[in-house]
Specification:
Elements lengths: L2 H13 L4 H14 L3 E3 L12 E6 L3 E6 L9 E6 L4 E12 L2 E9 L12 E11 L2 E8 L32 E5 L8 H13 L5 E11 L4 E3 L5 E4 L2 H16 L6 E6 L16 H13 L3 H11 L1 E5 L2 E2 L22 E3 L10 H13 L5 E3 L11 H9 L3 E5 L1 E3 L6 E4 L2 H14 L5
Helix pairs in contact: 4-9, 5-6, 7-9
């Protein structure tokens, strides 16, 4: 697997996935191109041993799995999330201020706000339409920069570099157009224009929408020797990509499953989040179709399985090395990072960490460990949620990155291939104890 080819595919995925809904659509397209059959939650499932299938929920979450020949006894599960911190448009977003039409926004997740200023911003998301008496979702994307959040000049705020805070309500409305050119613009006419520009459809009846701003700057490999790459939404589309690559690369000898939940950045409490029933529902149906069947069979399936939760880790920052524990500063291009927290903010145990270390050693992948400083708070992932909801032994790993939750994040160019190799070996592992 050539590192450059992996980066090229990753960049294609990042460019076409400005929202969770776009990410799921891209993953579904890739799965179908590789022989996976789509299932629908509202239909009966006819699942065969040796088959490859996927299912989505609420357009923003996806589960894909490939089954071994014979009875399903265990699964190698990989988890990630499709959402990233973002500025979402309010339901009535249009704001008229002086000579300009602006977009009122709501902060989704724990975003770093300052990097959003002075960026070329597009609009993307999903719209609910009525067509022929039916309500249907439609993905929209301006595919060009249409808005900007301009900074205030240093001459008018001499304290701007002295720890200035940002007020999301009063200081982050994005400039969309001049009032002179859009005097009668409404949110309905704006969305209709977006649909017409993208699809050539001029008579769509818009019922509702979920739209947000995103950075139009393309992913790029950087560094004198291309050691790094930068993009929006690396947290956590990078993990979605690596897990999907591993599922596709695996030889199919073992049962393997990828779950990509939505809403991790806001607590995972939704039907398509890790606190929801999506994964449990799919596992129950798998057990009835190709497993032992019954409640005891479902429990045995889960207890024989393992989960690797993939979410990026904080790489050692050369300008802020004191923010890391001295013995646990993961390096970019240093391989996957095992994430540990004594208070179970990560789900890693010595048993699951040992399994992953053994897998990495078997395929010559370097591995690192991260634990946060004892005097700092620790974030979390879908790992502890999935472990507690299902009762499955779980490990938290990730690729080291800088600037987590910024509009543009940075990671090491060698690390995606490392993680894919390790996850592929996990999907092919015959023994999970």
């Amino acid at each position: 697997m050539a590192e450059s080819r992996v980066i090229d595919r990753l960049f294609d995925f990042l460019k076409t996935s400005p929202t969770p809904w776009h990410a799921v659509a891209c993953m579904a397209e890739r799965l179908e191109a590789n022989g996976f059959q789509r299932l629908r939650e509202t239909s009966s499932w006819s699942i065969l041993a040796g088959g490859k299938y996927y299912v989505t929920r609420s357009d923003g979450a996806l589960i894909a799995f490939r089954l071994p020949q014979g009875k399903l006894e265990s699964l190698r599960m990989m988890g990630a999330h499709t959402d990233s911190p973002q500025l979402r448009l309010k339901p009535r977003p249009l704001v008229r201020s002086r000579d300009w039409l602006q977009l009122g926004v709501e902060v989704y997740g724990g975003a770093l706000l300052n990097p959003w200023f002075d960026r070329d911003l597009g609009i993307a998301g999903r719209v609910q339409l009525r067509r022929a008496g039916r309500i249907e979702p439609l993905l929209v994307d301006t595919r060009r920069a249409v808005a900007v959040i301009p900074s205030l000049a240093i001459h008018m705020d001499r304290e701007a570099n002295q720890g200035r805070s940002v007020n999301a309500q009063t200081q982050m409305a994005a400039v969309l157009a001049s009032l002179e050119s859009c005097v009668d613009q409404t949110v309905e006419t704006l969305i209709a224009r977006l649909i017409e520009e993208q699809y050539g459809e001029s008579d769509a009846e818009v019922l509702d929408f979920e739209l947000g701003l995103y950075d139009r700057q393309a992913p790029a490999q950087i560094g004198l020797e291309g050691e790094l790459f930068a993009s929006a939404r690396l947290d956590n589309l990078l993990s979605c990509f690596c897990a999907l690559e591993a599922l596709l690369d695996a030889d199919g000898s073992q049962g393997a499953l990828l779950v990509a939940n939505d809403h991790e950045e806001v607590g995972s409490s939704s039907a398509s989040g890790a606190h929801g029933t999506f994964l449990a529902d799919v596992l129950a149906r798998l057990n009835e179709s190709v497993g032992e069947g019954g409640e005891q069979g479902r429990v045995r399936l889960i207890q024989r399985s393992r989960m690797i939760s993939c979410d990026n880790a904080h790489g050692l920052h050369p300008n802020f090395a004191d923010k890391h524990d001295a013995g646990h500063g993961p390096k970019l291009n240093g391989g996957p990072v095992i994430k540990v927290n004594a208070n179970q903010r990560y789900a890693t145990s010595s048993a699951t960490a040992a399994l992953f270390r053994d897998i990495c050693q078997s395929v010559e992948v370097p591995v690192q460990t991260f634990v946060t400083r004892a005097d700092m708070g620790c974030g979390s992932t879908i790992g502890p949620i999935t472990a507690s909801e299902l009762g499955i032994a779980t490990l938290d790993v990730g690729i080291a990155q800088w600037a987590m939750h910024s509009i543009r994040e940075t990671a090491g160019s060698a690390d995606p291939a490392y993680l894919i190799r390790a996850l592929t070996a996990f999907c092919e592992r015959s023994e999970l104890d």
